[in-house]
Amino acid sequence: MSEAESSAAGAAAGEAAAAAAVAPVTARETVYCGVCSLPPEYCEFGSTVKKCMDWLEKNNPSLHQKLYSSEALESKMGTMTLEAQQKAEKDLAKKQQKEELRQEREAAKKKASLVYIKRVERTKRKFVTVVAGIELFDLSVKTVAKDFGKKFACGSSVTKSAAGTEEITVQGDLSEEIWDELTEKYGIDEDNIKQIDESKKKSAS
Ligand SMILES: [Zn+2]
Q1: Beta-carbon neighbour count of residue 147 at 10 Å?
Q2: Mean pLDDT of the 159-179 span
Q3: How close is the Cα of 31 to the center of ligand 1, in Å?
C-alpha cells in the first residue's frame, strides 16, 4: 500500500466513523424503508414485512437490530400482553358495570312492585284473603301458599286471577297476619304492600 493510498483509507475510515457517530440522529429522521417506503417502525403494518426486514438488515443493521432483535420482540410481546390484559380488565369492568346496572334496575323494579292483600267477603261473615304480586319479589307463589297454610293452619291455595296471574287465596280474614308474615319472614318493605278491603268497598258503593 502506498503512503497516499493508506492516508486515503484512513480518511475514509474517519469519514465512516464520523458518519456512524451521527447516524443514530439522522437515521431516526431520514430512514424510510426501501421496500414499502414507510419508516421501518411501521413496516409491520404493511404486507411486505418479510421483505422489509431483509432490506433493513442489509441497509441499516443497527435499526434492524433495534426493531427485530429477540429482545425487541420480547418487549413488544410484553406490551401486547399488557394491552391484552388492559382489554380484559376493560371488558371485566364493562361486565361489572352492566351487572350493577341490572341489579339497580331489579332493585328499582322491586321498589315499584306491590303485593296486594285483599280481604274478600265471599258470603256473609265469610272471608278469604287474596295475596297477589308475590312473584315480583322472586318468591315462589306455590311455596308461600304452602307456608301460609302451615303458619295459619288454614286452607291456602294457588289460584288464578282474572288477568291470568297466580295469586294465593287463603281461607279466612288473615290480612294482618299475612302482612306481618310478608314483612317479617319475607322481608318485603311495608311500602310495597297494599291492603285492599273489597268487602268494605262493596258495602260503601
Ligand atoms: Zn417496509
Answers
A1: 17
A2: 93
A3: 10
